[in-house]
Amino acid sequence: MASAQQGTRRDFIRRGALAGASLLAFPTLIPASALGLDGTVAPSNRIALGAIGFNMGMTNLRNLMGVHGVEVVALCDVDSRMLAKGVTEAPRARTFRDWREMFSKVQLDAVTAAVPDHTHAALALWAMNRGIDVYGEKPLAHHQAEGVALLEAARRNGRIWQTGSWQRSVRNFRRAVELVRNGRIGKISKVEVGVPHGLANTSSYKPEGRGTPGQPPAELDYELWMGPAETRPYHPRESHYFWRYNLHWGTGQVGNWFTHHGDIALWALDLDRPDRGPTEIRTTASYAKDAEGAWDVPADFTIDADLPGGVAMNISTQLREGTRWHGTQGWIHVGRGVTLASDPKLLNSAIEDSEWHAPGTTEHWRDFLDGVRTRQKTVAHIEAAHSAFTIGALGLLSMRLGNRTLRWNPAYQAIVNDPEADALRTRKWRAGWTA
């Protein structure tokens, strides 16, 4: 494992280039490609990228490898059929079934990972502790304490992080956040976040045909798929897309959707950092019995969070999907493809040069790669990911405990005066998966 003192591959290349230049005492012919002068990218600016997970991760792979100067050198998936899809995009890359092996055998600058929630933390810790920058999917982790570990690892190792919360790079979301941040609807008293029904499924993929309970399909290495989570018998309704509906692997629509819209809500309130987290969480939940006995996420739920500044956050499957801020001078609602306001004229308000402007660009994947090269914070940085994830994780924990009210101390990242609940912020990993 490379330590922070040893540095990364990119650091080594840069140091070597400088040292070599100092030894030149006579004119030397250097190919233009080595300096990046012929339209190619100099080695010191080339990004060696690894990609993991091609069921939900093909979009990430295509967008990242489409940026000039990126070389996909390694691909990994525990399912051979999914891995074959990745190979069609990057046929020259080395292939792996186990990302632990990939990290040990290939020198990488960055990795993109689209894997189930229960694997998020272990994979990202392995990467960051080896000097690799990460483009990771939301939610940040599976248990709240895992998110804390990731936040600390990113800071300790000086790693760049970008979350797949790409709404931060979409114009109408950015515009809505700017309007709220710059006071167009006055002081905010409440923010509503609407998410889909708990067992909603708009995917064309169906769980049937993925094998029978207890017998994983031949192409799936189920032992690797389980990763750090406690061993559990295979069930076709718990693999690939539908793992998100079982809390052993996923986080339901809380992790699937709240971490999108809730992230936007916090961004506009300047509460997208862990030290400005909630002080109390309250929930209600109802459950729909799955005929196959596999899915156990709450079907409908509400999460109420008390935020700093006296702002009340309400998250519910009964609200219109998206984010709505309520202020002393009106409201603004934003969702995918829609922006509304109590007074439509609010939406035409100009943002002056002296006012707050959303950082980053509308090119979410390029923003990550720019961060890898410049070491500047990305628009969907890890502090923001952890902030939204924490509210969602605490909400799920409250529901798990029968809708118990939880008091939260953001400074200590701990549940107050409830040792039982605080102990459930984490889980034990299987042997061999600790970074």
Describe this entry's structure for a reader.
This protein has helices at 9-22, 32-35, 58-65, 80-89, 99-105, 117-128, 144-157, 171-181, 222-226, 252-268, 364-374, 382-400, 419-423; strands at 47-52, 70-76, 94-96, 110-113, 133-136, 161-163, 188-194, 280-286, 300-307, 311-316, 322-327, 330-335, 338-341, 406-409, 414-415. By secondary structure, it is α/β, with parallel strands linked by helices. The chain folds into two domains: 9-19 and 32-167, Rossmann fold; 171-229 and 241-351 and 382-423, Dihydrodipicolinate Reductase, domain 2 (2-Layer Sandwich). The protein has a nine-stranded mixed beta sheet. The chain has a six-stranded parallel beta sheet with strand order 3-2-1-4-5-6, with helices on both faces. Strand 14 (406-409) and strand 15 (414-415) form a beta hairpin. It is globular and about 60 Å long. It starts with 8 loop residues before the first helix and ends in a 12-residue tail after the last helix. 46% of the residues are buried. Mean pLDDT is 90; it is low at 1-7 and 12-41.
